[in-house]
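Dear Dr. H.,

I hope your travels went smoothly. While you were away I took the liberty of generating a structure for the chain from your last submission, since the lab meeting agenda had it listed for discussion. I wanted you to have the full record in hand beforehand rather than looking at slides cold. The sequence, exactly as received, is reproduced here:
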Amino acid sequence: MRADLAAGYCGETTVDDFLKRVGKEYPMPRVAEGRRRLWLIDDLDAAIAPHIAQGDLAEDY
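The corresponding predicted structure, in token form, is as follows:
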């Protein structure tokens, strides 16, 4: 997801607040091509709820 969606998903009020925490509390984007930056929901889940998000939550069972 784009930074604006990732920020909202993580509960940040602004994209800038989210980006300031990327690489510290939030993961680096999984896709970084030119200006394109995309985060995976599983990576964000692991950052905001590490006790719940173990493994690939999007994996089909």
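Two observations you may find useful: DSSP finds three helices and two strands in the chain. Residues 3-48 form one domain.

With kind regards,
E. W.
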